[in-house]
Inverse folding.
């Protein structure tokens, strides 16, 4: 599926000052009983949202498109339902000191930008958005910069992921250009017994 | 000619599967085996259909319903119509695309990571993927196996490849004799505790050392299974005679005519002696003990003879705050001995600990004892074939006489998508792999342990040091 292109985004940010937010917290398993890709946003952080003091229940953050969170964000289950829920809720960029690998890949395929900044910088951003909920942050993927007030931080990003996000490219279309290489690999593969299944089994 | 640089096991498997490589782009990696289940695949098949694309290699994808199947009254549809719809959708997608399906009434049905090895689908040197993070389990056979998201499932269905960056390499060496009563589950909990929940992020892990070499293949599966719990997507053990003996004669393993050839190729799947790793961790098994988690990440564990830690004594303020939140959620007090913690529910199952050796270990504890009053205990075998084997050995009777419920195969209370759910506030001893908030049901509290310790908690009503019984 083609994804929505992402160049630059300026928005208020939701501060989520916790490490190790796992995908079970982002979207609990009981809400994965759907065969569709959409409609998960209302269940985002479902259990945490039962606490009236949870940041998503604070009306001042309504409409914010950026999430700033603690380290190891998105750990646990590989469920793409987690980025689907975030995207459906309106989140397009997440800033954290680190992300879990599978979650990060899934985000690219959903069109969400994940940005790694130093732990201290993330703390600062969280504090800023906590004390001043309307404070805007800019995530600029073209220049690989995060800007807030007078501050500018550059971030590193996988060049291929960046290209895909900037242009909204579909990964399957990209791979299908290499049909010849795939077919050649399959011919090589058929000549040895490694990796073949005995299908009379 | 320049000499070939030494390579790790992962390098060797990776190199053999690269379809295309260019600088600054991920490699295109060929996938030998794709496993599909009912929860993370429907959107992938649907997207494929909408894009008018075909499944490129129907012979390399195998489907099985496991995540939300009922574990009793199998002759009836799942009580929850939406679960039933996911199961039917998988059945339909398998039929429409010509995929092998182990359906719910097939004795070969079970948890996807249990049946892959059991059927001999999982083989050394393969690249194996599944829309499930515990795909790392299959690494116990010397395969490069990792979890993927639904968009990647779609990519594999359409192209039989994945765009992947080569992971960094990490070696985890475990040496020393395991003390009595210490199991592979304790080994992996100890590793996660040492490395931390994100200590493996970005890495593929190769397990080695005498302790791992001497572990049964099933024990290695338990270790590889929980690799994702410290952030690494893949965990591998180099294949050896144990591995080959396990696989020989399994339905999808190489035929007898080509078996010796396969084994000689598999023997080359080892890290070269001079190869280096980006990260090395060494752990001594001889001082390990049984572990119990007290918090809401698998790294938050202590030995069963220790006490719940005190967040106030932790140096790192973030860690202390997270620990305090975990204790609040778990409703535990600092310094409380682990053996004083009572349990309401005991779950023996999941892709971590539902194979025959796990059930035997639990049955050894249950034999001649009885589940404590007020405790509900479930035994959920990992597959229909594990269940049949256990019944042949009479384990179902031991469990039955001891008051444990004997169920049919599936993920069950590991993630509580079927009817097996903790009620809010209930506390479990679970042989599964995740103690996240609400994992076994909203408001449920999970302590991860080995099968023997789970069974002991069932008969005592609280945690005990199994080594004492
Ligand atoms: S048993 Fe649990 S961890 Fe394993 S595949 Fe099923 S839900 Fe996932």
């Amino acid at each position: 599926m083609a994804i929505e292109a992402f160049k630059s985004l300026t928005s208020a940010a939701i501060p989520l000052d916790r490490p190790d937010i796992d995908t079970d917290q982002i979207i609990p398993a009981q809400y994965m009983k759907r065969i569709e890709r959409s409609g998960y946003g209302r269940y985002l952080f479902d259990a945490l949202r039962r606490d009236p003091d949870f940041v998503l229940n604070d009306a001042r953050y309504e409409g914010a498109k950026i999430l700033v969170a603690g380290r190891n964000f998105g750990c646990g289950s590989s469920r793409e339902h987690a980025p689907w829920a975030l995207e459906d809720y309106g989140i397009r960029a997440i800033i954290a000191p680190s992300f879990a690998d599978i979650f990060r890949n899934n985000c690219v395929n959903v069109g969400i930008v994940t940005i790694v900044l130093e732990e201290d910088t993330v703390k600062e951003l969280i504090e800023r958005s906590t004390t001043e909920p309307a404070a805007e942050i800019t995530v600029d993927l073209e220049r690989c910069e995060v800007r807030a007030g007078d501050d500018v931080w550059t971030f590193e990003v996988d060049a291929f992921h960046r290209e895909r996000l900037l242009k909204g490219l579909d990964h399957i279309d990209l791979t299908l250009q290499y049909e010849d290489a795939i077919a050649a690999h399959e011919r090589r593969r058929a000549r040895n017994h490694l990796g073949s299944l005995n299908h009379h089994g | 000619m320049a000499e070939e640089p030494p390579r790790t096991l992962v390098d060797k498997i990776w190199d053999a599967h690269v379809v295309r490589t260019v600088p600054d782009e991920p490699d295109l990696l060929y996938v030998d085996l794709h496993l599909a289940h009912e929860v993370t695949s429907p959107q992938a098949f649907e997207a494929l259909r909408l894009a008018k694309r075909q499944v490129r290699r129907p012979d390399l994808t195998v489907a099985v319903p496991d995540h939300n199947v009922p574990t009793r009254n199998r002759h009836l549809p799942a009580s929850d119509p939406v679960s039933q719809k996911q199961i039917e959708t998988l059945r339909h997608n398998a039929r429409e695309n010509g995929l092998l399906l182990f359906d719910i009434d097939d004795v070969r049905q079970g948890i996807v990571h249990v049946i892959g090895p059991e059927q001999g689908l999982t083989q050394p040197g393969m690249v194996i993927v599944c829309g499930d993070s515990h795909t790392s389990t299959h690494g116990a056979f010397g395969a490069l196996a990792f979890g993927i998201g639904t968009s990647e499932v779609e990519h594999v269905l359409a192209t039989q490849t994945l765009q992947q960056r080569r992971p960094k390499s990490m070696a985890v060496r475990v040496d020393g004799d395991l003390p009595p009563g210490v199991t592979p589950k304790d080994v992996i909990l100890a590793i996660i505790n040492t490395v931390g929940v994100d200590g493996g992020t970005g890495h593929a892990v190769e397990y080695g050392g005498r302790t791992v070499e001497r572990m049964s293949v099933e024990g290695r599966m338990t270790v590889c299974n929980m690799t994702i719990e410290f952030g690494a997507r893949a965990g591998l053990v180099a294949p050896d005679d144990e591995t080959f003996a396990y696989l020989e004669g399994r339905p999808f393993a190489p035929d007898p005519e080509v078996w010796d050839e396969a084994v000689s190729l598999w023997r080359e799947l080892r890290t070269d002696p001079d190869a280096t790793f980006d990260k090395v961790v060494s752990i001594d098994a001889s001082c390990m003990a049984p572990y119990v988690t007290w918090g809401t990440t698998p790294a938050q564990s202590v030995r069963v003879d220790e006490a719940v830690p005190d967040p106030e004594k932790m140096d790192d303020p973030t860690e202390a705050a997270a620990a305090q939140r975990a204790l609040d959620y778990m409703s535990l007090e600092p310094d409380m001995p682990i053996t004083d913690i009572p349990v309401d529910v005991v779950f023996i199952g999941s892709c971590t600990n539902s194979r025959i050796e796990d059930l035997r270990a639990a049955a050894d504890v249950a034999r001649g004892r009885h589940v404590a009053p007020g405790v509900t205990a479930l035994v959920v075998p990992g597959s229909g074939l594990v269940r049949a084997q256990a019944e042949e050995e009479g384990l179902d009777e031991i469990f039955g006489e001891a008051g444990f419920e004997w169920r049919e195969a599936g993920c069950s209370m590991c993630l509580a998508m079927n009817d097996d759910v903790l009620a809010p506030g209930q506390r479990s001893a679970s042989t599964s792999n995740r103690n996240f908030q609400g994992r076994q049901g909203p408001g449920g509290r999970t302590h991860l342990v080995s099968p023997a310790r789970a069974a002991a908690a069932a008969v005592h009503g609280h945690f005990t040091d199994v080594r004492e019984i």
Q: What stands out?
A: Chain B has a mean pLDDT of 96. The pocket of iron/sulfur cluster is lined by residues B 66-67, 111, 113, 132, 134, 350-351, 411, 414-415, 432-433 (CB under 6 Å).
